[in-house]
């Protein structure tokens, strides 16, 4: 099966093409603006990305494609699982734009552009939030008047569902147990911890937006609401400036004064990074404890994400701290799939189950 | 050295006082001025505790805290052999500089006034009371004991928010932590009850008031984290406060009100939490007690679940910080008198070494009470808090040291 995966963030667009079950992509390209260059018009996307991609795929003998998998950040409560894109699906997706005003329109642009470049190829949409749609009400609800949140579909999600789902499935198989108590730690620029009974999430650090939770490379994580209001009330910042500050200039960057990757932070013993490292680990340890309480036990911690290589050094530390509390060691598992590999696997299953492949 | 310590605990419209003979902790007199300020449906009054006899209520107009103080002092003078030697004032937030017990002089007072916005409901009347005391008792030493003081040992990485450090410094943004006087009292009491030296005592202290609530992680008798933050809004779900909230939601609420900060502050501080979730009562006991035939039972159940879930997650979070705890401590109105809350929060926590004895817990009326099973490695205590005694102890200690 010939599969193209597309991961579009606000700043860039990464494509990878796979053939059959090979884990090594035939083709890998990254196109993107940097800094504040956030928009990539659809014409541009088609011209700059999909035409050269299409030529490269042709040269590699990858055409026609069997399926294209596109990652979506926010699918609301409507999209509980991956779905084939169609006019009606895109129309439903468009209604979610108020919940994620930057991401949803961008995703629709990308899907439409891919549709023009590869008109005969089915497109699968894979949403990060889908895994978290069934979170129990006590976990997904905030401590405010339900009218305030429900009218705008504000609830807790979690924004690395693709990694968590893959990692938990891996752990279920490895542990040969149907519903093990798992802490899934996704080591990405916006790290996220989910507590799962097998493949069912019961708690997650992410919030109604990806800003809440653990501090990220540039995002603040948990913050006193009074501090948000104090910042926004400051004449220099205002609400827009506060949003930018908390999303793009905080986290590890805010604490160290420079751009630091999570991998560098975890591996380094640089004194300049010590405070940021301590802050991050403090929040992570707290999140682990909260997750263990939510689960009522712990069988293993499973690590994933692009910085999964740093898992061993991180686990040494976490296990040491948790040993004091739990009076025993905690097993660790590693799932080092890339996001593109996850997308490929999901698309593969979708095509197999739907019988679309037979038609191609 | 013996001395009489006069303790003042100021609310926005109340003034509690207690005269305590130290170090014996004998209570000489106590009471509370209520409904201080502009006239309300009921007149302002001074309630004198009978200490065994019935309370006496005197209806007296008191337009501000200085007038209330005059009435309190008049009452104290009725028993001339029981007058204060030193005065301790409770302050909710002592700001960045008043982090240790501070004797009041002109410069300390100036600093308190400069940071009164950190606790806009509680600090201004406390400062007014301090000023009035200086005039009425010019010769007496006075000291401020702040709730933030106990949390001065929270390490830098636990009190630093992950925002640009130049912004934090310029705007004075950091975690302070609150309820420190109560946390310190119950932690000290529980260590004593368990015969563990305070400087080796590890615990999670749960101050669950009918209004505010916070958890405190304690290592070696010292606070290392508190669920409240820069303000008392962060953390647990409280009677009318939302606790933790995605910064994105706060910003979208601000956008809805066209940037009206005080409207959002009022919404999150006064109309959220248990009140916002249940839509009818700010008291979690009403949601817990709601029967299945109650018209609002679904919403009450949801409210109770969200409240208890947040509490349980934070208990787990703090047990992870503390390492193997000696005890989990429950205190204040909800923590002391609602066994169901302790039951819900401590159930399924065997992984942390916590085993609650259902019967002991349900029947615990006389506090302090250890409500864990005999074989539970981590003990669970319900301990009545006593902020005034806690303040008197700090004052006594400071006076002896000086």
Q: What are the salient characteristics of this protein?
A:
heterodimer, A: 360 residues, alpha/beta, Nucleotidyltransferase, domain 5, 2 domains, 5-stranded mixed sheet, 14 helices, 11 strands, globular, B: 402 residues, 8-stranded mixed sheet, 6-stranded mixed sheet, 14 strands
Percent range for helical residues of chain B? 25-40%
Write down how many β-strands of chain B occur, each being a DSSP E stretch of 2 or more residues: 14
Distance between the termini of chain A: 10 Å
CATH architecture of the largest domain in chain B: 2-Layer Sandwich
Count helical runs of chain B.
15
Domain count of chain B: 2
Beta-strand residue fraction of chain B = 15-25%
Multimerization status: heterodimer
Query: Percentage of helical residues of chain A?
Result: 40-55%
Ranges of chain A where pLDDT stays below 50 over 5 or more residues in a row are: 34-39
The side-by-side strand order for the widest beta sheet of chain A comes to: 3-2-1-4-6-5
Order of helices and strands of chain B: EEEEEHEEHHEHHHEEEHHHHHEHHHEEH
Structural description of this entry:
The complex is a heterodimer of chains A (360) and B (402). Chain A has 360 residues and is α/β, with parallel strands linked by helices. Chain A has helices spanning 42-59, 87-94, 103-117, 137-140, 146-150, 161-175, 225-233, 238-248, 251-256, 262-267, 274-295, 311-326, 339-354, 356-359; strands at 2-8, 12-19, 27-32, 67-72, 83-84, 123-127, 181-186, 192-197, 200-204, 300-304, 331-334. Chain A has two domains: 2-127 and 340-359, Nucleotidyltransferase, domain 5, CATH 3.30.420.40; 177-329, Nucleotidyltransferase, domain 5. In chain A, strand 7 (181-186) and strand 8 (192-197) form a beta hairpin. In chain A, helix 1 (42-59) packs across helix 3 (103-117) and helix 7 packs across helix 8 (238-248). The radius of gyration of chain A is 21 Å and the shape is globular. Residues 34-39 of chain A have low confidence and may be disordered. By secondary structure, chain B is an alpha/beta fold. Chain B has two domains: 3-146, Nucleotidyltransferase, domain 5; 196-387, ATPase, nucleotide binding domain (Nucleotidyltransferase, domain 5), CATH 3.30.420. In chain B, the strands form two sheets. Chain B has an eight-stranded mixed sheet, sandwiched between helices. Chain B has a six-stranded mixed sheet with strand order 11-10-9-12-14-13, sandwiched between helices. Chains A and B meet through helix 4, helix 5, helix 7, helix 8 and helix 9 of A and helix 4, helix 5, helix 7, helix 8 and helix 9 of B.
